[in-house]
Amino acid sequence: MVLSREDRIKIQTLREQGLGAKAMQTAYPHKGWSLNTLQWMCRRIDKTGSVVERKVGSGKPKSARSEANIAMVKDMICSQEDEPGTSKSTRKIASEVGISATSVSRIAKLDLSLSSFRRMPAQVINEATRLKRLTRCKQLIRRLTVNKTKKVFFTDEKLFYVSPPVNCQNDRVWSAGRKRSISPKRLLVQRARFSASVMVSAGVSYGGKGSLHFVAEKAKINADYYTNNLLPKLIENCNNLAPNDFIFQQDGAPAHTSRLAQDWLEQHCPDFIKKDEWPPNSPDLNPLDFHVWGAMLEKYRAYKPKPKNKAELKTVLQTVWDDLPQEPIDRAILSFRSRLQACIRAQGGHFEHLA
């Protein structure tokens, strides 16, 4: 039974006045003090003189956090020098050392002064890609001033599922009974093995976003489909937002870098970032990748009632897109130059983990 500091002071005062455990329980029935707790506290008061303040070093010795265990945890919890990925999980360490996972966490925090960070997904960057990213980021930051960045129309495609993947790690159900006594409706998160999906294409710029374009069912976004079905709609969005005064952006997908698409843009677009100008493998530089799609997915997951088929999914996605506030999008676009600078500082490598 855990007692408040006020209760402990009260009990100590009563004991100093000569009252025993049964007398205290009888005198204060509304407190709900157990007899065993009162008897233990009376003995402690008689022995130490207080149940309010703890002496330094009192209490149960930290047997799990011994010097030997601390040394073993220290050796296993962080990767060895020049050997990334050699660290072991908390559960694995607990199993090998013979202590609880909680004790491992306490050793890491209290004895080793370590902090825990969640892993971050990132794109693959090899040496050739890193050098291209570095070179092209330097070129873009010279070309795109703050004012010109505001004229860029960033575009991308994204696949959305009727039943999006669910991360249940921190989604817990509390119950007084055992797991098997919980209703399946509360405990189980159902998702079809092969969930229906919809591919969308869209673009955003400072001060406004374009329309949400749905890719035809079973269509493959190759050079022909992209050039004849998506590019005209995206350029129409650009002209509606900034007639003949925009810079069109697309990533390095094969359909985007095809000669057909590049020639079409030369003829129909006042200015665009050519295939050899945009950094490869760089979702960390496109506002749609690092902000817009995530914001949409977050709102979609919270949307009720959930869509049951592709037609309903399209309706929900259109609603979510229309309701996306412009101010966060503008902030993401204005951060584009600072991201270019961060990529340059990282010599073309990953930089989001440094934020």
Structural write-up:
- The structure is a single chain.
- This protein is α+β, with helices and mostly antiparallel strands and 355 residues long.
- It folds into 3 domains: 5-48; 67-111; 127-167 and 183-354, Nucleotidyltransferase, domain 5 (2-Layer Sandwich).
- It is 48% helix and 7% strand.
- It contains 16 helices and 5 strands.
- It has helices at residues 5-16, 21-27, 35-48, 67-77, 90-97, 101-111, 127-143, 146-149, 184-187, 223-241, 254-257, 259-268, 287-302, 310-323, 326-334, 336-345; strands at residues 152-161, 197-205, 208-209, 213-214, 247-249.
- Strands 1, 2, 3, 4 and 5 form a 5-stranded mixed sheet that branches.
- Helix 13 (287-302) runs antiparallel to helix 15 (326-334).
- It is elongated and about 100 Å long.
- The chain starts with a helix and ends in a 10-residue tail after the last helix.
- The model has no long low-confidence stretch (mean pLDDT 88).
Strand content: 5-15%
Share of helix, binned = 40-55%
Number of strands: 5
Tally the structural domains. Answer: 3
C-alpha end-to-end distance: 45 Å
CATH C-level category of the largest domain: Alpha Beta
Averaged pLDDT, please?
88
Principal-axes geometry comes out as elongated
Quaternary structure of the protein: single chain
Number of continuous helical runs? 16
Kindly provide the radius of gyration, computed on alpha-carbon positions and rounded to a whole number of angstroms.
31 Å
- Looking at the structure, the CATH topology of the largest domain is Nucleotidyltransferase, domain 5
CATH superfamily of the largest domain: Ribonuclease H-like superfamily/Ribonuclease H
